[in-house]
Amino acid sequence: MNESAPLAVELRGITKRFPGVVANKDIELRVARGEVHAIVGENGAGKSTLMKTLYGMHRPDEGEILIDGRAVTFRSPADAIAAGIGMVHQHFMLADNFTVLENVVLGSEPTRGVRLDRAEGRRRIRDISDRYSLGLDPDTLVEDLGVGDRQRVEIAKVLYRGATTLILDEPTAVLVPQEVDELFGNLAELKREGLTVIFISHKLDEVRKVADSITVIRRGTTVGTADPATTSAKQLAELMVGAELPTPQTRTSTVRDVPVLQLRGVTVSAPGGRALVDDVSLTVREGEVVGIAGVEGNGQAELVDAVMGLRPLAAGSIVLGADDIATWSTRRRREQGLGFIPEDRHRQGMLLDAPLWENRILGHQTRPPAVKGAFIDRKGARADTARIMREYDVRAPGPDTAAVALSGGNQQKLIVGREMSASPRLLIAAHPTRGVDVGAQSVIWELLKDARAEGMGIVLVSADLDELIGLSDTLHVMLRGALVATLDPASLTPEELGSHMTGAGSTAGAA
Ligand SMILES: Nc1ncnc2c1ncn2[C@@H]1O[C@H](COP(=O)(O)OP(=O)(O)OP(=O)(O)O)[C@@H](O)[C@H]1O
Fold first, then answer.
1. Looking at residue 508, what is its pLDDT?
2. What is the per-residue pLDDT for 371?
3. Ligand 1, CB cutoff 6 Å, lining residues
4. pTM for this one?
5. Considering only 169-178, 401-410, 446-455, which range has the smallest mean pLDDT?
6. Is 23 helix (H, G, I), strand (E, B) or coil?
7. Of the candidates 415, 473, 409, which has an alpha carbon nearest to the alpha carbon of residue 442?
8. 246-337+424-511 CATH
9. What residue stretches are annotated with the ABC transporter domain (predicted)?
10. How many angstroms separate the alpha carbon of residue 46 from the centre of ligand 1?
11. 9-241 classified as CATH 3.40.50.300
12. What interface predicted TM-score (ipTM) does this complex get?
């Protein structure tokens, strides 16, 4: 770090309180111009809060923000943007049926009422794309782009607004290894052009590969900075949580030859008739984890919805135990032993404004601890929520805390605890460890392994390839709605799996 040049970003003594929680306490962050700086820390450590403060979404209660050596006060993201700070959110905010040009330009001029100057916009996007090797064509429709390109559109949007410091929130969570490499290439390019990148990540190997320096946050405060060249992933994990780095590996097979779930010819159609899920057949047996790999948007989410009864089938059957459940309601499916860890906990798994105890009984309203006789059992629900919070290490003040006040990882632990508590015969686990830290990840992996050993069948949909390879007994690859390969996880590398997912895989290695 060049000590004489002013820092691109410096946070001094930042404290941010929410009711009952000190999310950030005395945080110190020093980011040099032109570096890639990673922020790591366990769930609820305060990373998002800190980044939102830097992006003008929160006002700090105490502390100072300095940009290029000058103290600033941000009243809103508009102020942060004017100071050259841009944020690339984890969930893309693009309109599918618009072009790259329209998304980039309109996204940056929503309220000014200026007419879109297409020629000028096109020229500037081409410049940005060339300068930072983003490979974007302004006239492509966003719906025709893959996940990696969409992320580059988000980056272009931020650059178009003149950002010189980019904040990326868990940018690799949705990418396959090849795309991760491309993103890292893009980040290197930004750096070469003198831009500064701050990114949050739970993937410590990646952090070590791409970051110039690392700030570790623990329980709301900075515990130190680490040099990626000399700090191992294990040491980083220990700094973060004081725990050993977990592995998802399961060794001995626990598969019994008793089918729990059988899908035959399952087909789900889009309104226009196009197959989103195309003739999928698979079997999950007792004690078996069946993994489904695929780049996001290849029908995995729709398949999961179909099994849970959240989308109608165009054709096919779904047999749970001995019952064809294809026409059953979601509630009946759950009562008969289907458990569900949904992909999007904000849409499906939780009521954010409701207290944790209500979230504890969500989807399980018809049995204890939700009810006693004919009545809602608030006391029982609260007590059981407290149990889950203890056993699953959900960090929050108590069962009456609103779900919205929990960090993402702690929300996820509550959902996993709730679903496991119902002892389902078959669990659909969609991205069960997305956004959770290494400590919580290992807890969730252990829970899945224990449940498998006790005979639970599990369908695991995940974008984390190590998780898929490590936990699955059988692994299917889904591409454009169809299962295109069945692979043996015992002899598969993440790179091989990645090529199958993008359709580049050879049939060699298929089981
Ligand atoms: N709007 C809010 N209201 C109340 N509490 C909040 C709010 N936002 C965050 N918190 C609390 O602040 C703390 C830090 O949360 P934050 O989301 O910053 O953590 P994080 O490090 O980003 O976690 P994760 O890795 O799980 O996303 C947590 O205890 C969380 O419950």
1. 38
2. 82
3. 18, 21, 23, 41, 43-49, 405-409, 435, 437
4. 0.65
5. 169-178
6. strand
7. 409
8. 3.40.50.300
9. 9-244, 261-505
10. 6
11. yes
12. 0.95
